[in-house]
Amino acid sequence: MKFIKIDKESWAKGLERLDDSFRLFGPVKQDKFHNFKELDKGELPDLSLLNTRLSPKSVVYPQSEVMFEYTLDENKEDHHILKEIDKDYSPRAVIGIRPCDAKAFLVVKPNFDAPEYKDPYWIKSYEATTFVGYACDTPCSTCFCTPAGCGPFHEEGLDLLLVDTNDHYLIKVITEKGENFLSAAGWGAEVDADAASDQIETMRHTAEAKITSRVSTDELKDKNITDLFEASFWEEAAFACINCGTCTYACPTCWCFDIQDETYGYYGIRMRNWDSCMYPLFTLHGSGHNPRDTKIQRVRQRFMHKLKYYVDKYENGIQCVGCGRCIRLCPVNIDIRRVCELMNSYGG
Amino acid sequence: MSAYIDKIKEISNRLLKESKVDMVIGFRKGTVPMMNEPCFAKTPQDVDNFVWDSNCGINLANYLTNREEKIGIIAKGCDSRNIVTHIIENKIKRDRLVIIGVPCKAMIDRHKIETMFETEIQDVIEADDKIIVKGDGFEKTLNKSDVLQENCAICIHRNPVKHDEVVGDPVEEQKDVDRYEDVRKIEAMPPEEKWRYFDDLISACIRCYACRNACPLCYCHTCFVDESRPQWVGKSQDPIDTRTFHFLRAYHCSGRCTDCGACERACPMGIKVRRFTKKLEKDCLDLFGWEAGMTLEERPPLDTYRSDDPDEFIK
């Protein structure tokens, strides 16, 4: 395993060099909070953050994404034919992504990149991206990454792990993609692997000890799916929900989208936009029938999908990395930790 | 304010025991600082979970829409005005409700307090008119009056306008409040500056519709943004569509909005959505002398016609 030390002065210089070969994305404080955005030339990622307000899933999977264009002008030879839009799949890097958010890409991968179905936009974006993780030494009280099968120094889904030791950064090289990114930046001060590894381990233990949220997920797999579906607690658990899309839009592991055509005169585009299972429209059939017409059904769907259907279908743990955004942002304080406990302990 | 809770529990218990209601709608303690969760109590044991403090900013009238049970509902001044509006608009029947009035001592602004600290707030404690904010290695005492929700700071109807039970003596209403300073500033802007102002205001919007869904007025079975035949509004992040949503929603609330602040409190991006609804609220006051939700006896100005309605805007 290889470890690199970067002085904070050479950090900015390296990022400047990377500008030529990568589109760089990083956290930037806009007004009141941090969010990921594409960095302007010379702009540095602001790493003085707990985590971003929204997850970085939009770097790979934007909220609105145009897929095709078409013309309705019958004088044109190719009228009424969908044509794929040129997109920029040149190398990009997300700098300062928290380990929970990086793991989230692996949680959604079985949906976008399945043996029988491939989502070309997600796959090409994902493969073009280098994930430079930023180890988390100040987890929030709403974080539950460790019980969710992840952690503040977790490496799954990362190409590099950046650790802030106060006077310099240590970088742990995890993949070849990460190695290439390092050489493009020109950072190469290799340090003694054993010492660096020990230092990071100590920091990891300290950070993990700060995560105090306890959420049990061990029983979910063995619960009977229809028992949980019909459980009596849903009425109480769903009562406060106002069915907005905040939890699903803020979530790094929510993947649903809707496809829309928009036409301007003769010109049209076909695009996809994030959708949310919280919305009644999400399941409304053309016939007018809606199989999830009530709030309770929709709230149940969200939690059952994340904590039961996903668990059973993919055998990849829960569809949640414990980032805590839905807890912090829910306007009415619906707390996934509480619902998870209700599900995990249901029926004794 | 915490003295109210004993009375809330006593009344709720009595109503449930005497089968006057099937459920009481109130708040239980939240799992994060400055948040409480709306909940219902169907048994005296459930009532034990009820809390009351300065974090009960959600408008509970939102939980009444089209319900048919007999319901006890805890209502601040603004909630009570939205209950009146709900009754007028036939979204709930007066005789199905027992309104438990709470003379309101104002709610605190969680967004404002969060942005005052660089690091995470782990606990917020209330003591009289002080708010004590705690986090890892810090503790700071704030004056509650400095961190009120903006709508609460300018509220002139803190006492419930209709109630069947009440949990305390009326509070003194604020006098000489300038409710529309911010609106006048925007009104004075030239059109281009106004556009820029509104575009900046909603630039962070993610179209999650938390503002709409937290609002007791927004009960349409299918909102205009969700209509598909015809489709009035696009669904992408196009600024024109986002703008259309916010402008039209505000217009739909005119003459109905009580400035309860639920929309602003709900917004995950901290957008000041009341800047839109307040303008319409001001117009209704200026043109019709109307404040929403104050009486069951009169129809709101936008669903009636009177020959002396102002018409100077018709040229």
Which descriptors apply to this entry?
heterodimer, A: 348 residues, alpha/beta, 2 domains, four-stranded antiparallel beta sheet, 11 strands, B: 315 residues, five-stranded mixed beta sheet, three-stranded antiparallel beta sheet
Count of helical segments of chain A?
11
- Which structural category do the helix and sheet elements of chain B fall into? alpha/beta
Strand order of the largest sheet of chain A: 1-9-8-7-6-2-3
Q: SSE order of chain B in H/E notation?
A: HEEHEHEHEEEHEHHHHHH
In total, the number of domains of chain B comes to: 2
* Count of discrete structural domains of chain A: 2
Q: Using only CA atoms, what is the Rg of chain B?
A: 20 Å
What percent of residues of chain B adopt helix (DSSP H or I)? 25-40%
Provide the low-confidence segments of chain B as ranges: none
Overall shape of chain A: it is: globular
Radius of gyration of chain A: 22 Å
The count of helical stretches of chain B stands at 11
Q: First CA to last CA of chain A: what distance? A: 45 Å
Strand order of the largest sheet of chain B: 2-1-3-4-8
Unreliable spans of chain A are none
Give your account of this protein's structure.
The complex is a heterodimer of chains A (348) and B (315). By secondary structure, chain A is an alpha/beta fold. Chain A has two domains: 2-59 and 87-209, no CATH class; 220-257 and 275-344, no CATH class. In chain A, 32% of the residues lie in helices and 20% in strands. Chain A is built from eleven helices and eleven strands. A seven-stranded mixed β-sheet of chain A has the order 1-9-8-7-6-2-3, with helices on both faces. A four-stranded antiparallel β-sheet of chain A has the order 5-4-11-10, with no helix packed on it. Chain A is globular and about 65 Å long. The mean pLDDT of chain A is 96. By secondary structure, chain B is of the alpha/beta class. Chain B folds into two domains: 1-107 and 151-177, no CATH class; 179-306, no CATH class. Chain B is built from eleven helices and eight strands. In chain B, the strands form two sheets. Chain B has a five-stranded mixed β-sheet with strand order 2-1-3-4-8. In chain B, strands 5-6-7 form a three-stranded antiparallel β-sheet, with no helix packed on it. In chain B, strand 3 (71-75), helix 3 (77-88) and strand 4 (97-101) form a beta-alpha-beta unit. The mean pLDDT of chain B is 95. The interface between A and B is large, with 43 and 41 residues.
